TrEMBL record:
Its EC number is 4.3.2.10, 3.5.1.2. It comes from Corynebacterium liangguodongii. Keywords: Amino-acid biosynthesis, Cytoplasm, Glutamine amidotransferase, Histidine biosynthesis, Hydrolase, Lyase. Transmembrane segments: none annotated. This is Imidazole glycerol phosphate synthase subunit HisH. The active site is at C93, H203, E205. InterPro entries: Class_I_gatase-like (IPR029062), GATASE (IPR017926), Imidazole-glycPsynth_HisH (IPR010139).
Amino acid sequence: MTAAESGETPQAAPTVVLLDYGAGNIRSAQRALEHVGADVTVTADPKLAVEADGLVVPGVGAFASCMEGLREVSAPRVIGQRLAGGRPVLGICVGFQVMFERGVEHGVDAEGMGEWPGVVDKLRAPVLPHMGWNTVDVAPGSTLFAGIDPAERFYFVHSYGVRSWEMEEDPYIAAPLVSWAEHGGERFVAAVENGPLWATQFHPEKSGEAGLALLRNWVGTLG
């Protein structure tokens, strides 16, 4: 029996803004989010980005150019406003990296969002870029990876990453959940869950069923 047949009001799909700031092809992320039940709008409109149930910050390319594009659409203000109100934000790839204090790429030292301390710099693995499928060492208690087999692999494509987690623990605030991955003997942060701010170095929208399960977990927290 459907909700309409039972007289129940169908539950509206969570609204998600996929932030469009010129950071590359984001249609695969849109399709993946819609597949897991989100009502997705691709826009740079700050008002819509603030008001949506969830905001996704994608990113492909250089750290500095992504930050420039984000500033042009008032993303630092929008993200700060959302996080201050406890409203979920999900960063993907460079959208993950820009949440840190700084990024050093091709000799350019660029300021990031500063939501987390730390520097994004070049991995020291013998083969770069790190491109392809890799497992993730998931933080205990993770909601983002809930129900996903630990042996599942996710799709990475990057040469830069965060090689250490520098945030000091606050006894009055729940500690962030930090998940890690390894490439060429180099360990780096693969995902962070920190209050309303979650982010992944890998591309869940390109990670098959495991990526869809992860996005479904995030969308399931919205409302």
